[in-house]
Amino acid sequence: MRVHYIEVEPKQEQAAASRITVGGSPIVSLGQDWPECGLCKAPMVFFFQLDIDKSSDLQLKPGSHLLVFMCPIHNDIPSRLMEYGDRTLPEKYWDGDFGHYALILNKPSKTEVKLDQANPLQLISFKYRELEEVIDWDGRTERGSAGFKLGGVPLWEGEAEFPTCCCGAEMVFVCQVPPGFGFPKLKGAAEQAECLMPGNYYLFMGLSVYLFACKDQCTPRSLYPVAQDIIEDQILSG
Prior knowledge:
By secondary structure, this protein is an all-beta fold. Helix content is 3%, strand content 31%. It has a single domain (2-236), classed as Hypothetical protein YwqG fold (Roll), CATH 2.30.320. It is built from one helix and 16 strands.
């Protein structure tokens, strides 16, 4: 299986023109606004964006654009919205948490716009490095490689979780953010609440994050995050 590892692009002068970035100006569909936290109404931090590359093996529309936002104050891990023993997500699950993050996957569009708003993260562009992924089998679950990546197989720090969208479609594993991955902040920007290390912002308290999207892309918000802590999962599993 091909996987696209996401690497920092050293040519920062090209970052503003890139479509795969940390920080900067999110590229959205016409009519979409910068999201606000449902708890405190603060503008969310724009963490990163990327395109679904047409050469990937993802069963999504090539050229679709993923955007990830989270509240600068409320960075709690996402709630588990699936019932144990039933992996089907509830109706409008994208609104079923506390509203402290926003995941968006827009289909290819000719009416895209850039949103310009103050954001605490440095603008950094990324590039893809395509490789064949080595997949392990632990007797119960396939486990993929570590790292920040588009597609492939989740590494899974704990038990595998494969959700089904409320529309009935299977969900596709889109992106993995490794544990402790720091998104550098701008000089002078406020520190993130309860951050792991000063100078960086962390998605969902720095846990391993696996993002899934509805295979049919029934809405732009039909995405579900799974955040796992290897220590906690080892304790829970006995």
